[in-house]
Design goal:
The chain has about 190 residues and is of the alpha/beta class. Helix content is about 45%, strand content about 15%. It has a single domain, classed as Rossmann fold.
Length: about 190
């Protein structure tokens, strides 16, 4: 693994644990020499994580649609800022650049991005590991919902294992690395 795409909120969230997790993930990425690929914002969890990677001497690639440059306050200090036409191009470009995916807490956009890469993995369009940074149990309802979908017969049990979940960035990165190197990725 060389590049990790991280989906995260453009807001800080109400719980200080979320911003702390964004900082900790940024530190881990930089310490391990992993490049961050993300949505390109300088605010919220996205901005905190990108700033931390940069402060620690790491590389950061932001990908942002033209229409969001003003609203999401593009982070112009990143190593590379790629401007794309729309959200579809953004997700495609981030997916193309990444060797693995992580979701920090976030809103609709974060959930949509996670489920798109999970769907791609389920369909065999990529074989890259996907992880949830489950801070304070944030993603527990989602994990339970996926199991409910399996139990209802809409996806096979093996597809529920596409989402790895850990509460600590170091543990999640280790699991992603293991999944990516063992051939048991998505």
């Amino acid at each position: 693994m060389r590049r990790i795409c991280v989906f995260a909120g453009s807001r800080p969230g109400r719980d200080p644990q979320f911003m702390e997790a964004a900082r900790e993930l940024g530190e881990e990425l930089a310490a391990k020499g992993l490049e961050l690929v993300y949505g390109g914002s300088q605010v919220g969890l996205m901005g905190r994580m990108a700033d931390t990677v940069l402060e620690r001497g790491g590389k950061v690639t932001g990908v942002m649609p033209t229409e969001l440059f003003d609203r999401e306050v593009a982070h112009h200090q990143v190593t590379q800022l790629i401007e794309v036409r729309n959200m579809h191009e953004r997700k495609g470009k981030m997916g193309e650049l990444a060797d693995a995916f992580i979701a920090l807490p976030g809103g609709y956009g974060t959930l949509e991005e996670v489920f798109e890469v999970v769907s791609w993995g389920h369909l065999g369009l990529h074989h890259k590991p996907i992880g949830l940074l489950n801070i304070g149990g944030f993603y527990n309802p989602l994990i339970h919902m996926v199991q409910k979908i399996v139990d209802a017969g809409f996806i096979p049990e093996r597809s529920s294992r596409l989402l790895l979940s850990e509460e600590r960035p170091s543990k999640l990165l280790a699991r992603l690395q293991q999944a990516g190197s063992s051939g048991n990725e998505c």
